[in-house]
Amino acid sequence: MNKTFNLDLLRAFVAVVDSRSFTAAALQLHSTQSTVSQKIIRLEEAAGQALLERARHDVRPTDAGEKLLGYARRILHLHDEAAAAMTGTALAAVFRLGLPEDFASRLVTPALARFMRTHPNTKLEVTSGLSRELQKGFETGEFDLVMVKQKRGETVGTMHWPEPLSWLDSADFPVSHVDPLPLVVFPPNGLYRSDMMEALDRAGRRWHVVFTSSSLASIQSAVAEGLGVSLLPTRVALPGHRVLPAAGGLPSVEPMEIVIRHMDNGPDQIRQLAEMLAEIVGE
């Protein structure tokens, strides 16, 4: 028997995933938390499997939820587009962007603002996250455009640039001389983590992980406070950091690559947005 997904349930599911909270989703949908929870339960019953992982302070999609999410977004957008066409009202074009945390902040804001000024009848939905998660989201149709970091040549993108990496130590509380070397890292599968560990292993330098976070800001702060060293893009070094010289005793690591990917058959606005972002990255 074919599965049928109710639009109202799909809308609740997308709201919960985007806000990562049942409470926030309920406010967004002008509903109650219990009602949203019941809708998710009904959707999971229709799907025949769990769609969300519920933690105390966070909600994330399961693998099945990730798979459904891209379809849910497209279904809802097509529904809203059809409804607007039938009523004769103009529906704002919605473009879904996935950006790494360090690009989703002030670095690309000018380009996004300029795009919105030149395309007033558009709406941007920007999600920041780890590059591997963004790549996966793009390939499942969750995003119209992503800017990601990868090892050179890992995937083919519309545009690409090198991303030089440097070892960063604390300017005030240096620890790069400590043995074993304390490391500040992203979680498993996060960028730079395996690169730094493999480089240190090849160089015969002992190391141990002292701090792990998925937040770039937390990584930067931990390094500045002297918890450990980290391998990061050179451009994210802060005044509290010391960029270790190439001859400073730690092994060199090949640059990463910044790649912009967007749908080949997407609207012209997506290509224009990609070009605006490229101007920022290429500077």
Automatic annotation (TrEMBL):
It comes from the Bacteria. GO terms for molecular function: DNA binding; DNA-binding transcription factor activity. Pfam families: HTH_1 (PF00126), LysR_substrate (PF03466). Residues 5-62 form the HTH lysR-type domain. InterPro entries: LTTR, LysR_HTH_N, LysR_subst-bd, WH-like_DNA-bd_sf, WH_DNA-bd_sf. PROSITE patterns: HTH_LYSR. Belongs to the LysR transcriptional regulatory family. This is DNA-binding transcriptional LysR family regulator.
